[in-house]
């Protein structure tokens, strides 16, 4: 019986092939982790945007439910500077002095309000917003639309998120 012997070749990788594989894998991993970390750091931005919008809307709703002016009667049925209600609108946009958040009764009272952390209408801190801040500006803006300037007020709520990004939300309230 004849046995045919064939040479047996070593199978596997050489040391050079292993080193090249390790170096290329390391470079690919480094690129991947660099991209992943930049994406990861901006992943909180949409969460902050949604929370800022929610907070801005809450403040605008609260303020929008108040009287137009200190001189306007409750319910906004009549308006200041109207012959049916012979009182003139306030010339100064601020609180009447000594008022606290729970007693704000017209939108002027909110002018210059800074809440950090944000609060609800009764002065209680809003949960989930401890690192946010809110700044409110009320300004006469009737002239923007061709009305007498004191017939329209613009309420601007600026919400600043924990990453120091600011978002502005505005609403107009008319003396109608």
Structure description:
- The structure is a single chain.
- This protein has two domains: 13-43; 45-174, no CATH class.
- The protein is 27% helix and 16% strand.
- The protein has helices at residues 15-41, 45-64, and strands at residues 114-115, 133-140, 152-160, 166-174.
- The chain has a four-stranded antiparallel sheet with strand order 1-2-3-4, with helices on one face.
- Strand 3 and strand 4 form a beta hairpin.
- The relative contact order is 0.15.
Features:
176 residues, alpha+beta, 2 domains
Layout of helices and strands, plus pairs?
Elements: H1 15-41, H2 45-64, E1 114-115, E2 133-140, E3 152-160, E4 166-174
Antiparallel strand pairs: 1-2, 2-3, 3-4
Give the strand order, joined by hyphens, for the main sheet: 1-2-3-4
What structural category characterises the helix and strand content? Answer: alpha+beta
N-to-C SSE series?
HHEEEE
Q: Mean pLDDT, nearest integer? A: 84
Biggest sheet character = 4 strands, antiparallel
Radius of gyration: 32 Å
Shape assignment: rod-shaped
A few lines on this structure:
This protein is α+β, with helices and mostly antiparallel strands. 27% of the residues lie in helices and 16% in strands. A 4-stranded antiparallel β-sheet has the order 1-2-3-4, covered by helices on one side.
């Amino acid at each position: 019986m004849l046995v045919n012997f064939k040479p047996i070749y070593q199978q596997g990788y050489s040391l050079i092939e292993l080193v090249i594989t390790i170096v290329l894998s390391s470079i690919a991993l480094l690129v991947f982790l660099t991209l992943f970390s930049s994406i990861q750091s901006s992943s909180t931005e949409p969460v902050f945007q949604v929370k800022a919008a929610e907070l801005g809307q809450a403040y605008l709703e609260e303020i929008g439910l108040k009287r137009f002016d200190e001189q306007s009667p409750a319910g906004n049925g009549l308006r200041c500077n109207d012959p049916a209600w012979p009182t003139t609108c306030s010339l100064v946009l601020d609180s009447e002095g000594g008022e606290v958040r729970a007693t704000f009764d017209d939108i002027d009272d909110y002018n210059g309000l800074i809440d950090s952390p944000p609060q609800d209408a009764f002065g209680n801190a809003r949960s989930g917003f401890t690192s946010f801040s809110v700044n409110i500006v009320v300004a006469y803006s009737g002239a923007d639309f061709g009305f007498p300037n004191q017939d329209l007020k613009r309420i601007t709520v600026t919400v600043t998120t924990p990453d120091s990004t600011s978002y502005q939300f505005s609403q107009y309230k008319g003396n109608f």
